[in-house]
Amino acid sequence: MSSSPITQVPQHQVPIQSSLQPQLLTRLLLDLRGKRFSVDRETIMNLPESVLLCLFPNGLVLSRQSSAFSDGGENEEDEEVYGVDFDPDCFSYVLEFFKGASEAFYGTATNPGLFAAQQHLLDGSPSDFGPAASQNPLLTKQAIIVLREELEYFAIPPTDGKALTDDNGIANQVLLEMKRRCGQHIIEKRNIFTALQRNVHKENNVAEQHLIDMLCMSGFDRDDEWGYRAMEPSRCCISSIALVLLKTGIVHHPPGPNGERPVTIDYNQMATAQKLLLFWRKPARKCWWDGMEVDISQSEESTQIIKLWARRVWTLELSLVGAYSVSSASYSSLFQV
User: β-pairing, 63-65 with 305-321?
Assistant: First the structure.
């Protein structure tokens, strides 16, 4: 027998070392405030960066060490539940929008998408889209503008002495009711740009006006409302999100008499859309204070004017949806338990 230390290592030890390698999770079971979602790993990674940061503020691990998590069961992966402090209805809204956008662009098993009709654009000359048309992600991926708002409001109680806190800082019922009515008043104001436009007029902020103009040229409308808007539980905070398809300048015309689907390009609009690529995987944030007076009276015969201060934080991001998102495995696993 050879005295080489290499040949003296028993062969049964080799698989022990390989078993310690991280195992990739194929899907995650998420518990969002009592509602469970089983989500494909590819679908999770396809979500906007800003949404992922809210879902997993401490980071997301998509693999695990078998020695640390394995209990010997065959279905151990399905038993791991990740608790997430995020609005489940907002999560459903984002998933459904991305699913619909993906199917419309890449097509389904029965209906071809827009991508099939514009593939010939990839053969365009370098002068059309810069260095090379094939390197322009707006030609090969569905682009979605993601705009989120985190609004925290502070109500200034009237001086009648009814809305108070005790020695421990706990609000009485009058103060709690006042805060609830103030929150309801704000949440009913669903127009996206009203508050920012009000700040533009007050501060004469040209940069903010340019932001509104850019967003409205790229897919939003000036009268658009938030796609989802809700109060956070037990907090004076309102979370809102709006998703729109980016206007890339690629125009798909109705089918011709022979079934052809002509496609034309607005190069000025394409140049505007390419500016939004600066926000791909790089969310930008803007914060400002907004003061207002609201009437929270519950009858038409009287008024109850309350001074409100709202701290608004906007997050702007561009998401590019890959072709894998339309595979049956990506979205067939989405469900609530």
Answer: unpaired
* Listed range (76-90, 106-120, 125-139) with the worst mean pLDDT: 125-139
Q: How far is it, in rounded angstroms, from Cα 36 to Cα 29?
A: 7
What are the extents of the domains in the chain? 27-63+86-152+225-290+309-321
Instruction: Enumerate residues 6+ apart whose C-beta is below 8 A from 213.
Output: none
Amino acid at 66: S
Task: Name which residue leads in pLDDT, 323 or 300.
Answer: 300
Contact 230, 238 (CB under 8 A): yes
**What are the two backbone dihedrals, phi and then psi, of residue 207, each rounded to the nearest 5 degrees?**
-65, -40
230 Cβ contact list (under 8 Å, min separation 6): 87, 89, 90, 187, 238, 239, 240
Mean pLDDT value across residues 281-300: 89
- Listed in sequence order, the residues at least 6 apart from 114 whose beta carbon sits closer than 8 Å to its beta carbon are 104, 105, 107, 250, 252
CA dist 300 and 302 (Å) reads 6
d(CA 44, CA 326): 13
